[in-house]
Amino acid sequence: MPDTGWRPVAPGLEKRVVQIYEAGRAEPVEAAVVLRVDPAVYRFEVGYRPGQPQTLREWALESGGEIVINGGFFTPEWTATGLIIAGGEASGRSYGDFAGMVAIRDGRPEIRWLGAAPYDPAEPLDGALQAFPLLIRPGGVPGINADLERDTPDRRTAVAVDRSGRFLLIITPRGGLTLHAFSRFLAGADFDLEIALNLDGGTSSGLLWREGDQMTGIPAFTPLPAVLIAIRR
Known about the structure:
Mean pLDDT: 95
Distance between the termini: 34 Å
Radius of gyration: 16 Å
Shape: globular
Strand order of the largest sheet: 1-2-3-14-13-15-11-12
Largest sheet: 8 strands, antiparallel
Low-confidence stretches: none
Order of helices and strands: EEEEHEEEEEEEEEEHEEEE
C-alpha cells in the first residue's frame, strides 16, 4: 500500500504511512511514518539527562509521555551540542542561523529558523531544543540543496508544523534517504507544511507512541540524552 491515509490513533492524534519511490525503481526506497498531533490536545516538553541517556521507552515511562521522539545532536559525553531547555533550565550554546529550534511555551510548540528569529535568553520558554538543518524553510520552501556535501542515505527524523498549526513528527527508519531526498519528499507531499526541522538521524532516530494501552513504534538504536515528549492535556 503506497499510502495509508490519515488514520486516527487517539483524540488529537493521527498516523499515516507513506511509501517513498524514486524514479526508475519499482520498489519503494523508504517508508515515512508520520504522526499528526493537535497541540490543543497534547502538551509538549523536552526531556534532558546530560551524561545519563535513556531509551525512548524509559523516557516514556518516566515522563508519562504518550509520544516520544529523539532530540537533536549530542556529544560522545551525552550532552547536547546546541542550546537546550528542559523544565525551564537552559544549558549549552545556541546555534547560528544555519539551524532551527523547537520552542515550547505553556506546552505549545513552535518551530523557527534561527536565521530569522534567533534565541533570546530573556524569552520565557519552558522547553527548547535545537537541531539542523531546516528541511523546509518558513513558507514551505525546500531547505536542502542537491549539492549538500557528504549527504549519504541514513535513518531520518524530523518535526514539522503544517499551515493549520498541527505538529508533525516524522521518521524514515529504513535508512534509504539522503537529507536532500528527505527535504524533497516533505516539500512534495500533501502535508501542507509551513516549516520542518531535521533531528539527529542514524542510530539516534526513533519514534514511539501510545496506541490503546501499548507503546509502539520505531525504537532508536542508541540511548538518548534528549527527547521531545508529548503528553495528553
